[in-house]
Amino acid sequence: MTIFKSFNFFAFLSKKFEQISKKSSITIWILLLIFLIPVAFIVPEFFRLRNLNNVLIQMAPLGMVSIGQTFVILGGGIDMSVGSQISLVSIVASTLMTDSLISMIGVTALCLIMGAFFGYINGLILKVFPIPPLIATLCTGYFFQGVAYALHQTSGGYIPKIYKDVFTASWGLISVPFFLFLLLFIFAYVLLSKKKLGRYVYALGGNAEVLDNIGVKSPEIKIKTYVISGLTSALVGLYLVAKLRSGSSHYGDDYTLLSITAVIVGGTSMAGGIGTLSGTFAGAILVSMLTNVLNNVAFRYNLQSAYYKDIITGLILIIAMIFYRKRTKK
C-alpha cells in the first residue's frame, strides 16, 4: 500500500512539474533562482554590487540580440547571421565615424538602416526561395562575414571618446547599456503581446495557414521578424564598437549561438509559436551569469574558463531542447 502511495505521490509531482514546464518563463526564472544558491557558496564575491553591475552590463548586448532572435524563432525561423551582422556594423561604424556630432548621429542612423536591410535580405530570400531558414541565414552570414573581412581583417578604425562615454555610462546597477536593453524589451513586449504583429508572429510559427485564411501574407510577417532581428543586431554592433572604440570582424562571433541558447533556454520552441520574451530575459541573464561565475572560478582556481564555458553552454542548450521537446510536437 505504501508503495502505491509513493507511486501516486511521484506521479502527482511529475504532473505538477509538467504543468510548470508549460509555463516556460516561470520555469526558467525558478531555475535561475535555484542556480543562485550554489553560486552564493562557490563564488561569494558574485553578489558584490560591482560584480552584479558587470553581469547586467554583460547581459545587455546578449539580451538585445536575443530579443530579435526571439521574434524570428517564434515565427518558425532562425537567424544564424546575427553575429556576422554585428561584426560588419562595427567595422562600418568605426570606419566612417569622426568626432563630428553630425557624423556620429549619421553613422548611427546608417548602421541601424543597414541592420534593417540585412534582416530584409534574409526575409526576402526565404520569401522567394524554398530554402530552410537555417541554411539561408548561414549563407547570408558567410556573405556578411566575408564583406567584414574584406573591409578590415583585424581590429581597427576610430570611435570618438564621447561616443563611448555615452554608450557605456554607469551609475551603480543602472547603466546605459542595461537601460537600452530595458527600453528595447518593453517596446518588444508591447509589440509582441499587445499589437496585431505579435499575434501574427505567434500564428506564423504555430500555423501559417491561419494567416493565409484571414488574408494576411505570412511571408511579409516573416520578413518583419528578420528586420527586427537585424535592427537589434545593429544596435549591439553599435554598443560594442562604442565600448571598445574600434571595429572588428570577430566582435559578433559568440552572439549567434549565445542568442539561440538564451531564447531556447528561456522556453521558446524551435518549432515556433510558443515562447515569451520574459523567458528570453531570464535565459540571457542565466547565460551571462554562467560566464561571470566561470570567470570568477577560473580566477580563484587558476583555470582556463573559456573551454568550460563553451562545454557548459552546449550542454545547457542540449538539456533545454530535451526538456522542452514535447512542446515542439504539433
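the 2nd protein, sequnce then structure:
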Amino acid sequence: MAAAAAEISAATGGEVTWLAIDLTDPVQIRHLADEIVRRYSRIDILVTNAGGPPSGYFDDFDDEAWFAATN
C-alpha cells in the first residue's frame, strides 16, 4: 500500500494518506476518522476498498453475489 500511495503522490503531486483497517471493526473505523481529522481537520475524499464481488458493473451482480461478498 505504501508503494501505491507513493506512486499516486508522485503522479499527482498530492499528499496521499493510507491506513489499513478492518471495516468490520467499529473501533478501527473510529480510529480512521479520528486520525484523518487529526491530520487534516476534515475528510474530503474517502475511498474504501473492502473487497466485494469480482470486478464488473454494479448491475451485473445479483443479490447472492453481494451477500456472498460480505461474508
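The chain has one domain: 2-70. The mean pLDDT is 82.
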